[in-house]
């Protein structure tokens, strides 16, 4: 049920269908109980897992969120309202929470993806607003120091995978809590999940560079295995992005294409369920290249296409 990382850090793997399939939720032991980092996706199965953990005697002092994607914030409302556990988020995360609560959220997301070539989006997308309908108890910002378990951690703003993404670093023990900023097995998807266009890939590259200032012995990711060579893994991810950016550029070098058409060029034909993340990755790479003036955007019948700029 729980696996040990260090003497005072354990983690539970909360599994679910779809997406990454599992989230690492960390429990950091403190004098007055445990700090939980991220909660996993909302599901009855996840609630049963946390109930079992609590029944074994674990006292949860507070929940702290790295960012507010569904698979990390999913049970925060449950912890707060059913168990009386305070929820701590970044001020930026509170702004994102409000966006996810909006009644027109699904329409805004649908409009975005259809403007980039997706021909059909179900009229009734899953309504996940309920997991965001609570008020956090406390807030943090970049540069703050926050008590997590026994130790103090520096708060580092690392936008990219999410605009409100944060990592936490303990300088004495050289431990980095990564959230989804860097993963060992896969490259984190950089996607416009709130339905608003921005150059998140530029943010992501800048955030990866920030990690140079934080020598790390062990990094705790939100999914998959622990990372013991963080800088090596960062270099692998950077190289992978550069190769994909070259593929995206080559895809629009001759003819204008939508983000969906570029996705099909780069990743091939995938099932609808497996297409979402590659589509988002293709779109954010196109926006990055557009901001760098390597490609430009044209609009045809309310649909955007991208083409390489002649040099």
TrEMBL record:
The lineage of its organism: Bacteria, Bacillati, Bacillota, Bacilli, Bacillales. InterPro entries: Metallo-B-lactamas (IPR001279), RibonucZ/Hydroxyglut_hydro (IPR036866), Sec-metab_biosynth-thioest (IPR050662). This is Metallo-beta-lactamase domain-containing protein. SMART domains: Lactamase_B. SUPFAM superfamilies: Metallo-hydrolase/oxidoreductase. It comes from the Bacteria. Residues 22-223 form the Metallo-beta-lactamase domain.
């Amino acid at each position: 049920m729980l696996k040990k990382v260090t003497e005072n850090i354990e983690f539970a793997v909360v599994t679910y269908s779809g997406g990454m399939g599992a989230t690492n939720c960390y429990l950091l032991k403190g004098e007055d109980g445990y700090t939980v980092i991220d909660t996993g996706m909302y599901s009855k199965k996840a609630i049963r897992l946390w109930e079992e953990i609590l029944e074994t005697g674990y006292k949860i002092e507070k929940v702290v969120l790295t960012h507010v994607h569904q698979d990390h914030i999913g049970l925060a409302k449950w912890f707060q309202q059913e168990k009386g556990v305070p929820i701590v988020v970044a001020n930026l995360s509170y702004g994102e929470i409000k966006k996810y609560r909006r009644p027109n959220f699904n329409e805004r997301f649908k409009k975005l993806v259809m403007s980039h070539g997706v021909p059909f989006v179900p009229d009734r997308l899953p309504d996940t607003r309920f997991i965001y309908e609570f008020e956090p108890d406390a807030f943090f910002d970049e540069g703050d120091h926050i008590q997590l378990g026994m130790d103090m951690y520096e708060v580092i703003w690392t936008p990219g995978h999410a605009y409100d993404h944060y990592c936490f670093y303990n300088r004495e023990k050289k431990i980095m809590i990564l959230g989804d900023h860097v993963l060992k097995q896969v490259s984190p998807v950089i996607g416009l999940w709130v339905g608003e266009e921005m150059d998140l890939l530029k943010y992501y590259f800048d955030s990866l560079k920030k990690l140079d200032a934080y020598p790390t012995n062990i990094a705790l990711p939100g999914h998959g295995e622990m990372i013991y060579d963080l800088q090596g893994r960062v270099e692998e991810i950077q190289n992978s992005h550069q190769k994909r950016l070259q593929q995206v550029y080559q895809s629009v070098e001759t003819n204008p294409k939508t983000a969906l058409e570029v996705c099909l060029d780069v990743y091939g034909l995938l099932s609808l369920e497996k297409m979402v993340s590659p589509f988002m990755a293709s779109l954010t790479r196109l926006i990055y290249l557009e901001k760098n003036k390597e490609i430009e955007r044209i609009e045809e019948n309310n649909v955007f296409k991208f083409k390489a700029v002649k040099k």
